[in-house]
Write a structure and sequence with these properties.
Layout: E1 5-9, H1 13-19, H2 22-31, E2 33-39, E3 54-57, H3 66-70, E4 77-80, H4 89-94, E5 98-101, H5 103-122, E6 143-147, H6 151-160, E7 166-170, H7 181-187, E8 190-193, H8 207-211, E9 218-221, H9 230-239, E10 244-247, E11 267-269, H10 281-296, E12 304-305, H11 307-311
Parallel strand pairs: 1-2, 1-3, 3-4, 4-5, 6-7, 6-8, 8-9, 9-10, 10-11
Antiparallel strand pairs: 5-12
């Protein structure tokens, strides 16, 4: 197998070291002709990249300009050891440069996190105590709504199959929906947000939707805080103490000092921990290293990103 000329591109060396373990970095150095520098916006102009064929990266990947891409005329593929590639992928795809992402790997811990929250929410675990003995319906035959149809939603759908739940999936593109947002919020006992991070999704989850939720229902957000009308959500949660909001993301993040999200008894805030972290991040590196080996051997790729994928879900 030919060793392709490779380089790490990332804003911070510490991020590369965090995602790619020492053993994984050693493996990459063994199967590629790896440049010693980690390239970022600060040193890009001082490094000769004309022979680079593949890039390894993760959170902190550069969004290249046309001029910068012109300087990497031999670039064939980018192996991104993280999830969403929307912010940098299109200029690469337009030039026929392959983009490989660990989006499926990053989806696993988020789906696991939400699965646990769904099961507990069906029992009303987050509000049940000896002063409030209201218990939820349990999992059998109840309805869950997943807002978004991407990798996390798809993985979660697989996991939920064993629970005998009625799962509604609402794609982010309105033209692809068979169930409306209004119906999803009105009928589901748990609503979980997995919308992609696009401008057209900002504040689409409105006060009216939250106000329509069933008695005792739960809203879970591991998508983006900006997709929620947070002022409207707070208003509804104050008026509806029966509802619960489990928020792993907010906007801004963390919430501003004095935000009622910190003090409302029916809100649980976590610090954006649903995605890959600590030991879990090395799964992302394994995914892209595996696909590099396929690429170098001329074999089909398992985790390639396409323009169609960026436009759907």
């Amino acid at each position: 197998m030919k060793k392709l000329k490779a380089v790490f591109v990332c804003a911070k060396k510490e991020t590369v070291d965090y995602v790619y373990s020492e053993a994984q970095r050693k493996q990459i150095a063994e199967v590629t002709d790896l440049m010693p520098e980690i390239v970022n916006a600060g040193n890009f102009d001082s490094v000769d990249l004309k022979d680079v064929e593949v890039i390894f990266s993760t959170w902190g990947m550069m969004n290249f300009t046309d001029e910068q891409l012109d300087r990497m005329s031999n670039l064939k593929a980018v192996f991104y050891g993280a999830g969403a590639t929307d912010y940098f992928a299109r200029p690469l795809l337009a030039r026929g440069i392959k983009v490989i992402s660990a989006w499926k790997a990053n989806a696993i811990p988020v789906a696991e996190f939400v699965l646990a929250q769904i099961i507990l929410s069906m029992k009303n675990y987050f509000s049940n105590n000896w002063n409030n003995k209201f218990a939820g319906p349990g999992c059998y035959g109840e309805t869950v709504a997943l807002i978004g149809a991407g990798a996390i939603s798809s993985k979660l759908q697989e996991m939920l199959k064993v629970l005998n739940l009625n799962v509604l999936v609402i794609p982010s593109r309105p033209e692809r929906r068979t169930v409306s947002l209004e119906e999803a919020f009105r009928t589901a006992y748990v609503v979980s947000n997995h919308l992609p991070n696009r401008e057209d999704n900002q504040k689409v989850l409105t006060r009216e939707l939250f106000a329509s939720m069933r008695q005792g229902a739960t809203f879970i957000n591991t998508g983006r805080g900006a997709q929620v009308d947070e002022a409207g959500l707070i208003e509804v949660l104050k008026a509806r103490p029966d509802l619960t909001a489990l928020l792993d993301v907010t906007f801004p993040e963390p919430p501003e000092a004095g935000s009622e999200l910190y003090t409302l008894p029916n809100v649980r805030l976590t610090t954006h921990i649903a995605g890959s972290l600590n030991d879990e991040v090395h799964r992302m590196a394994d995914y892209v290293i595996g696909d590099y080996l396929h690429f170098a051997a001329g074999e089909p790729l398992e985790h390639e990103v396409t323009e169609e994928m960026l436009m759907t879900h």
